[in-house]
Amino acid sequence: MNEIILYIMTCFMVLGAIDYLIGNRYGLGQKFKEAFQSMGPLALSMVGMISLSPVLAKWLTPIVSPVYQFLGADPSMFSSTFLALDMGGYSLANEMAQSSDAALFSWVFLGTMMGPTIVFTIPVALSIVHKNDHPFFAKGILIGLMTIPFGCLAGGFVAGFGFIWMLKNLIPSILVSILIGIGMLSAQSVMIRGFKWFGKGIEIVIIIGLVSIIIKTLTGISIIPGLMPLSEGFVTVGKITIILAGAFPFVFVLVKVLQKPFALLGNKLGMNQQALGGFIASFAHHIPMFATMHEMDDRGKVINTAFAVSGAFVFGSHLGFVAGVEKNFVIPLIVGKLTAGFLAAALALLVTKRVAK
């Protein structure tokens, strides 16, 4: 089944390339082009952290390991609880893991749901979402965090991991989710500032790593000893990009196909056109959704945010990363992210039912 997904991506990559050559008649060519244009932003956010990962693991493992072992979890769960797989979660999980299974479970599932929410979604979305919509955003984030364990368990089950083993490894991230929930309910403004500073801090670390490895590559001068070679990061970025060259055209077609069915569904659920458009867009990327949140009805704002916590990027960069690095986990990834995403959307639908009426 994983191979079938990759063949589908390959077919759409070829269609995108053909459309690009004939002048982008059907819109697929533009998406093919956008995949390769994403290499720059991907490299900027990934290469530095990949190079730094052995050094960070050396510093963090002695501190994190005793705590996580006490809770019965692998230390690699720490990295993906706070970092997206493409912002250091993958490389750091591999360095900190005590087993290959733990590393995979960490970056494939937590690294595509929990990590991106903390390091990317919350800090970035808060700079886009209008201040009046922050309460709806916060409610959606809380609902989305609640369903992450179910997504990890569903995806992990498909991948063949044991239930009790997965549950033990999820304990720390569940505790973090509870703490975030308490913070968002009792001190929302403080938490928002904290997430913004955390996101900025991660960005600083990434750029320090990038600059250090570039200096070492060009001059041979080692500012930070023990960095991973520059080539490691660029090979990973390249693998992701070639998957995205098929994934972007695929999502473009998917959106076209789903527009009418989703419009009918939206009328029944009490969501306006902007909310539905944002929901579909999140399959590839959630930034376009957050950019139009002020045009959505209140119910749609909560549902979209809740789904985006886990469901965003499922056919975008997260699919590209996993397919490029560990193709046998493509189906488990999709199952896990969509399980958590749709559960969150359903829960948000129930929570906002009274508001809709």
What is the secondary structure topology, with strand pairs?
Blueprint: H1 2-21, H2 28-37, H3 39-70, H4 76-82, H5 89-96, H6 100-126, H7 134-159, H8 163-186, H9 188-219, H10 230-269, H11 273-281, H12 287-291, H13 298-311, H14 317-325, H15 330-351, H16 353-356
Helix pairs in contact: 1-2, 1-10, 2-10, 3-5, 3-9, 3-10, 4-5, 4-6, 5-6, 6-7, 6-9, 6-13, 7-8, 7-13, 7-15, 8-9, 10-11, 10-14, 11-13, 13-15
Can you describe what's shown?
The protein has 357 residues and is mainly α. It has one domain (2-356). Helix content is 81%, strand content 0%. The chain has helices at residues 2-21, 28-37, 39-70, 76-82, 89-96, 100-126, 134-159, 163-186, 188-219, 230-269, 273-281, 287-291, 298-311, 317-325, 330-351, 353-356. Helix 3 crosses helix 9 (188-219) and helix 3 packs across helix 10. The longest helix has 40 residues, at 230-269. The protein is globular.
- Kindly give the count of domains: 1
The biggest sheet amounts to:
none
Q: Kindly state the mean pLDDT as a whole number?
A: 89
* Cα-to-Cα separation, first versus last residue: 42 Å
| Number of strand elements | 0
Q: Give the helix tally.
A: 16
Helix content: over 70%
Class by SSE composition: mainly alpha
Give the C-alpha Rg.
Answer: 20 Å
Order of SSEs: HHHHHHHHHHHHHHHH
Broad shape: globular
The low-confidence runs, each spanning 5 or more residues with pLDDT under 50, are none
Q: Determine the strand fraction and express it as a percent band.
A: under 5%
Concise account of the structure shown:
The protein is mostly helical. 81% of the residues lie in helices and 0% in strands.
